[in-house]
Amino acid sequence: xxxxxxxxxxxxxxxxxxxxxxxxxxxxxxxGLIEKILTAKENEQEAVKRILWHAAEETEYAAALLxxxxxxxxxxxxxxxxxxxxxxxxxLSQAKAFLQEGLPLLEDNGELCYVKLRYAVQALRSAxxxxxRRKRASARLEDE
Length: 144
Description:
CATH topology: Four Helix Bundle (Hemerythrin (Met), subunit A)
Helix content: 55-70%
Radius of gyration: 16 Å
Order of helices and strands: HHHH
Strand content: under 5%
Structural class: mainly alpha
Shape: globular
Number of domains: 1
CATH architecture: Up-down Bundle
């Protein structure tokens, strides 16, 4: 469920305001990594697996920083969309969209920004699971 109120962030100290630049950098990195995955060739699956893990890590890091800086520790949004029905590519595109939507909200609506980051994490984790399942199924077929 999305927050309905604006929650303009108040960075309480210079140290906390440094978090904003770290969050932006992590989100930008994650978006760039997702773009690499979306344009990767079929024969680059091992590299894609590492890049996907790194994109999820960057997104988790951004969400963790925002949570720590603003006290969103009790906020645990669950993505209501059915990720199970999406392709891996669809999940990646959805994660990228959440990141792109969330970043501009960082200063004006921190809570909604956090929700978007958590949704992106869920989409990336779901893509990782789907990718792992596909790889295991492929390996089993080769063994037979």
